[in-house]
Amino acid sequence: MPDAAREPLEAPQRRVLGVLVEKAKTTPDAYPLSLNALRTGCNQKSNRFPQMDLDEEQLERAIDSLRSKGALTVVQGDSRVERYRHRMYEWLGVEKAELAVVAELLLRGAQTVGDLRGRAARMEPIPGVSELRPILDALVGKGLIEYLTPPGRGAIVSHCFYSQSERDRVRRDLGVADAGDDPGSRPASAYGHAPTGAAADASSAAPKEATPSEPAPMAASDFAAQLADLRSEFSEEIRELWDEVERLKSRVEG
């Protein structure tokens, strides 16, 4: 991967690249994108977090910066309107499925492995979490993504294009602390995921000390976190089972 691709990207730049990859894969007939189409894709309400309202000036600054980095290029359309095409395969040194995963993380930020599989699969075939894992491993090895919680079902992953301050904020918002952080200061997730091991409310009484024959009581927030992880795992398994039923049904009908 080129050294330039290791640099942090600003939020509008991340959104522009994510949209260009998404539209190239899902609506190829409308790709490359004009400035108006790119703005619409960046500001759309579905499959985006956080919501943005970028104007043309902000987009043009992001485009100029990304163009100087070699991440996108400008082409002339039939109507001589400038259109924009990403160069992410060369810029990041990734394969098709790897790029789909990176694009989803650029569009929505940190998310669980199960959610990421379902969202990236609309751009490239990724049948299940077991097929996603080697893709994630490859991207971790290339320094493009990282696990914010231990790998496995329910794990949360993020791209590596944040600045250090943004990365710290994301981890705090998710309730995920780096070594040395105070677990008691971790806030609830702003991303809709309750991370495993989130601290109990600081205002609640401290749990009683456990004896060798008595397990320590589980805090309410820890119970909610484990329940959220289980829900995510079961949802993914149901999706996989449903996909398998559909494949078998198509085989029988065919």
Q: What's the SSE blueprint?
A:
Blueprint: H1 11-26, E1 33-34, H2 35-43, H3 56-69, E2 72-76, E3 82-86, H4 88-92, H5 96-108, E4 111-112, H6 113-120, H7 129-141, E5 145-147, E6 156-159, H8 164-174, H9 220-253
Antiparallel strand pairs: 1-3, 2-3, 4-6, 5-6
Helix pairs in contact: 1-2, 1-3, 1-5, 5-6, 5-7
Can you characterise this structure?
It is a single chain. The chain has 254 residues and is mostly helical. The protein is globular, with a radius of gyration of 21 Å. Helices cover 48% and strands 8% of the residues. The protein contains nine helices and six strands. The strands form two sheets. It has a three-stranded antiparallel beta sheet with strand order 1-3-2. The relative contact order is 0.10. α5 crosses α7 (129-141). Residues 179-230 have low confidence and may be disordered. The protein has helices at residues 11-26, 35-43, 56-69, 88-92, 96-108, 113-120, 129-141, 164-174, 220-253, and strands spanning 33-34, 72-76, 82-86, 111-112, 145-147, 156-159.
